[in-house]
Inverse folding.
C-alpha cells in the first residue's frame, strides 16, 4: 500500500512537473505592438478579435495592439512614451526626426540580430542594402525598413467624355495642357449653359502617400517642375553641382508656367487655400476637366462621381512634356513602413517572439490573415487572387488593422486590393491597370535618399518661406521678374539654406545616394 | 426734448438690432451650411439650403459600431467627470471661502502655484503610469479633475453669499456640512451649473489625453473616433468604407460634426438663464 502510494506519488509529481513545464513552454509572450491604423475609419479590434486569436495560436504571441493616431498626435504620443521609458515592444515610426532622436536617446535597439530568425521576410523585404542604409546609424541597423507597397498611385486624370465632346486630343505637352484646360473652362463641356467648370484642379498638398513632399507648391504641381527637369527638392548631382532645385533657373520657369495657368483662369480661384477633400468634392461633382488624384481617391469617389455624371469617363493622361522634353510626375521613395523595436523589448528577450511573429506575417496563412482577413468570410481566392467577398466592410477592416505588417506590393496583392469598378451602364474600369499605367507612364523618379536628409533646425521656416513666396508669385501678388526672383533666392541665405544643403549632401553621400 | 431723445433711443435700438441680426446671420450661416451639407444626398451639389434632403450620412455614421461605442464612452466620461470635478471643486472652494480657515492664504497660494506653473506633459504621464492608471478611465477623470480657474471663481461666489445666513444656520445648530448642503449649495445654483458646464465641455471635447493615456481603442471617446473616421475618409489610399457609402464624403464629415455638437447644444438652453449670473457673480470679489 505504501509502495503503491509512493509510486503514485512519484507519478503524480512527474505529471505535475511535466504539466508545469509544458504550460511554461506554451505560455504566450506578451507583445505590445503600436501601429498607425491601416483603416482608421474602421472599429478597433475587440477582445475576441479573430486575428489576435490566430496570432496567439500560431506564434505564441499574446498581441497587445495599439492604434496610433495619425500625424503629430501619434508623434507626441510616441515621444511621451519614450520620455517615460514606456515605448511599445514593436512599433511604427513615420517621423524620421523622431526615429533618429530615439536612436540618440538609446530608446530603440539594433535589429540585425532578428534578421537570421526570420529568413523569408529578410530575403523578401530587408535584402536591399540601399534601403537598409535608410535605417543605419553608426554602423548599426536600427529599424526594419519595409519596401514601398503602394507608391506612385497618383496621376493627372482627365474627363475623357469632355475631350471627345469638345473634339480635343489628350494633351502631351505643357502648351497643349494649357489649351485643353482653357477649353474645359470656357467651352461649357458639361453643357449646362453655365461657365462653372475648371480646366485643372489641384491644391497645395504635401501629404500625399507615396510621393515625397518636396519644397514649393506641393505635389499637385510637381509635374510642372518635372517638365522643366526640377522635380522634388534635390538634384542629386555630385560635388559642387549638388544643390536644391529651387536654385535652378528652370525652377523659376516652372513657377512661371503655374502663373500662366492662374492667369488664364483655368484653375479654381481658391485653389491656394482649399484642401484635398474640397478638390475631391469638386471633381466628383463634375467641376474639373483635369485634376490630380490617386487610384484610391478614384475608388473612394467614383460612386459620387457617377451619381453626378452618369456619362462621365475618367482616364489618366501621361505626364506632359516640357520645352526640352523633360517629363516626370514627381519623386518617390521606395520605402514604406518603418518598424522599430524598443530597447526595453530586446532587454526583456522578446526579440525571438518579434521575429517569429513578423516571419509568420510575411507569407502563407499569416500574410493572408493580416492583409485580407478571415479566409472564406472576408475573402476567397479566385484564380490566385485574394478577392474580397464579404459585405461586412467594417468587420473585414477590423481584421486587417495590422495589414501594413503583411502587405508586400506584389501583383496578386495589388490585383486583390484594386479590382474593377463597375458603372451602372455596364462600363467597367480595371483599377489595377490604371495603377500600372500611372506608374509606367509618368517617369517617376526614385529619390529614396531624401529620407536620410536631416531636417534643418528651422525646417518649418524654410518650408513656409519657399511655399508662401511661390504662392505669391503664381497668384500675381508679387510680380515674377528678375528682381523679385533674386530677392526670393537671396532670402534663402537668411535662413541658412546653404547649411541645409551642405548637410543634405553629406547625408546623401554617406548613404551612397550621390557620388 | 423728450420726444427727440425717444427718437434717438429708437434709432440707436434699431442700429443695435440691425448689427446684432447681422452678427447672428454671420454666426448662423456656417452652422446652417454644416447641417445643409450633412443632409445633401449623393450626387447633389452642396448649397446653403439643401435642394433635396437625405439622412443617409447620419444612418451611415450611426451604423458604425465604433461611433456608437465612442458616444457612450463620451457620455459616461462627461457625466462622471462632471460629478467628480464638482464634488472636488465644491469641497475645496467652500473651505477656502471661509475667512476662519487656518492657513487659508497659504493653501490658496499652493493651489494658485499649480495654475501658474504647470508640471508639463511628461511628469504628468509618469504620475499616471506610476499610479497604474494607464488605460483606465481614471486617468481621464482624475487628471485635471479640479480646474484652478473654476475653483477660484466658485470660491469668490461663495465668499459673496451673506454671512448672516450661515450664522443663522449655525445658531440653529447646523454643522459645516449641513450649512454647505442646505444653505450654500441651494443658493449657488448659477455657479454650480456654470462651472458644471465648463467641466462638461472640457471633458466632452477631450482629445489628446485619451490618445496619450488610453491604448485600448474601444475605450476612446467621440472626438478621437470621429477624427479617425474623418482621417480615413480623407486618406490618399483606397477607403473601402468610402467606396461603399451611400452618402457623399463631405456629408459624412458634416453629419459627424452635427452629432458631436448636438448634446452640448441641448444642454445650453436649460442653463442659459443661470449662465450670466454665474460667470459674473463668481468673477467679482466681494
Amino acid at each position: 500500500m505504501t509502495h503503491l502510494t509512493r509510486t503514485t506519488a512519484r507519478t503524480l509529481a512527474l505529471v505535475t512537473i511535466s504539466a508545469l513545464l509544458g504550460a511554461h513552454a506554451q505560455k504566450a509572450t506578451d507583445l505590445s505592438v503600436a501601429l498607425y491604423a491601416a483603416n482608421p475609419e474602421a472599429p478597433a479590434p475587440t477582445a475576441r478579435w479573430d486575428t489576435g486569436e490566430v496570432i496567439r495560436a500560431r506564434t505564441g504571441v499574446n498581441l497587445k495592439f495599439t492604434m496610433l493616431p495619425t500625424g503629430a498626435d501619434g508623434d507626441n504620443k510616441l515621444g511621451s512614451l519614450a520620455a517615460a521609458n514606456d515605448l511599445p515592444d514593436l512599433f511604427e515610426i513615420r517621423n524620421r526626426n523622431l526615429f533618429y532622436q530615439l536612436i540618440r536617446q538609446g530608446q530603440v535597439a539594433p535589429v540585425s540580430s532578428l534578421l537570421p530568425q526570420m529568413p523569408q521576410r529578410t530575403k523578401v523585404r530587408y535584402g536591399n542594402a540601399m534601403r537598409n542604409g535608410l535605417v543605419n546609424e553608426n554602423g548599426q541597423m536600427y529599424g526594419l525598413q519595409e519596401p514601398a507597397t503602394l507608391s506612385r498611385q497618383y496621376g493627372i486624370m482627365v474627363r475623357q467624355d469632355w475631350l471627345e465632346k469638345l473634339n480635343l486630343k489628350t494633351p502631351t505637352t505643357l502648351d497643349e495642357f494649357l489649351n485643353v484646360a482653357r477649353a474645359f473652362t470656357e467651352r461649357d463641356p458639361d453643357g449646362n449653359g453655365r461657365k462653372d467648370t475648371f480646366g485643372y484642379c489641384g491644391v497645395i498638398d504635401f501629404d500625399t502617400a507615396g510621393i515625397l513632399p518636396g519644397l514649393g507648391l506641393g505635389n499637385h504641381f510637381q509635374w510642372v517642375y518635372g517638365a522643366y527637369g526640377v522635380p522634388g527638392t534635390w538634384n542629386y548631382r555630385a560635388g559642387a553641382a549638388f544643390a536644391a532645385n529651387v536654385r535652378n533657373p528652370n525652377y523659376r520657369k516652372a513657377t512661371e508656367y503655374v502663373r500662366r495657368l492662374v492667369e488664364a483662369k483655368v484653375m479654381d480661384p481658391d485653389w491656394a487655400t482649399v484642401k484635398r477633400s474640397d478638390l475631391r468634392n469638386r471633381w466628383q461633382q463634375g467641376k474639373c476637366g483635369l485634376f490630380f488624384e490617386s487610384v484610391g481617391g478614384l475608388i473612394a469617389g467614383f460612386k459620387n462621381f457617377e451619381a453626378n455624371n452618369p456619362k462621365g469617363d475618367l482616364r489618366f493622361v501621361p505626364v506632359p512634356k516640357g520645352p526640352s522634353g523633360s517629363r516626370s510626375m514627381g519623386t518617390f521613395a521606395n520605402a514604406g513602413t518603418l518598424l522599430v523595436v524598443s530597447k526595453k523589448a530586446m532587454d526583456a528577450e522578446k526579440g525571438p517572439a518579434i521575429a517569429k511573429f513578423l516571419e509568420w506575417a510575411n507569407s502563407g496563412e499569416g500574410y493572408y490573415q493580416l492583409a485580407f482577413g478571415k479566409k472564406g468570410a472576408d475573402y476567397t481566392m479566385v484564380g490566385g487572387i485574394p478577392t474580397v467577398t464579404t459585405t461586412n466592410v467594417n468587420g473585414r477592416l477590423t481584421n486587417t488593422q495590422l495589414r501594413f505588417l503583411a502587405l508586400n506590393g506584389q501583383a496578386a496583392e495589388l490585383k486583390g486590393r484594386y479590382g474593377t469598378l463597375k458603372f451602372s451602364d455596364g462600363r467597367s474600369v480595371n483599377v489595377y491597370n490604371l495603377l500600372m499605367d500611372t506608374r509606367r507612364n509618368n517617369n517617376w523618379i526614385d529619390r529614396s535618399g531624401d529620407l536620410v536628409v536631416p531636417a534643418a533646425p528651422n525646417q518649418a521656416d524654410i518650408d513656409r518661406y519657399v511655399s508662401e513666396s511661390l504662392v505669391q508669385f503664381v497668384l500675381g501678388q508679387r510680380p515674377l521678374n528678375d528682381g523679385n526672383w533674386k530677392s526670393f533666392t537671396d532670402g534663402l541665405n537668411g535662413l541658412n539654406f546653404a547649411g541645409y544643403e551642405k548637410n543634405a549632401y553629406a547625408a546623401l553621400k554617406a548613404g551612397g545616394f550621390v557620388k | 426734448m423728450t420726444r427727440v431723445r425717444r427718437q434717438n433711443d429708437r434709432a440707436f435700438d434699431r442700429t443695435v438690432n440691425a448689427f446684432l441680426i447681422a452678427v447672428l446671420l454671420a454666426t448662423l450661416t456656417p452652422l446652417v451650411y454644416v447641417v445643409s451639407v450633412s443632409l445633401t444626398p449623393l450626387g447633389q451639389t452642396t448649397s446653403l439650403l439643401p435642394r433635396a434632403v437625405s439622412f443617409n450620412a447620419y444612418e451611415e455614421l450611426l451604423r458604425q459600431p465604433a461611433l456608437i461605442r465612442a458616444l457612450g464612452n463620451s457620455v459616461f466620461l462627461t457625466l462622471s467627470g462632471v460629478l467628480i470635478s464638482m464634488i472636488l471643486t465644491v469641497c475645496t472652494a467652500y473651505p477656502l471661502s471661509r475667512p476662519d480657515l487656518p492657513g487659508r492664504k497659504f493653501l490658496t497660494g499652493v493651489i494658485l502655484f499649480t495654475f501658474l506653473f504647470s508640471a508639463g506633459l511628461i511628469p504628468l504621464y509618469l504620475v499616471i503610469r506610476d499610479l497604474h492608471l494607464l488605460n483606465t478611465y481614471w486617468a481621464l477623470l482624475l487628471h485635471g479633475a479640479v480646474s484652478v480657474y473654476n475653483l477660484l471663481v466658485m470660491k469668490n461666489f461663495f465668499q459673496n453669499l451673506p454671512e448672516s445666513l450661515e450664522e443663522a444656520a449655525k445658531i440653529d445648530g447646523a454643522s459645516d456640512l449641513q450649512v454647505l448642503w442646505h444653505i450654500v449649495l441651494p443658493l449657488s445654483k448659477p455657479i454650480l451649473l456654470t462651472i458644471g458646464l465648463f467641466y462638461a465641455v472640457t471633458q466632452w471635447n477631450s482629445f489628446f489625453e485619451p490618445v496619450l493615456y488610453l491604448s485600448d481603442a474601444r475605450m476612446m471617446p467621440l472626438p478621437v473616433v470621429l477624427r479617425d473616421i474623418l482621417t480615413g475618409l480623407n486618406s490618399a489610399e483606397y477607403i473601402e468604407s468610402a467606396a461603399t457609402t451611400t452618402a457623399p464624403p463631405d456629408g459624412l464629415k458634416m453629419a459627424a460634426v452635427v452629432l458631436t455638437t448636438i448634446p452640448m447644444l441641448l444642454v445650453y438652453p436649460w442653463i442659459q438663464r443661470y449662465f450670466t449670473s454665474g460667470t459674473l457673480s463668481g468673477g467679482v470679489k466681494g
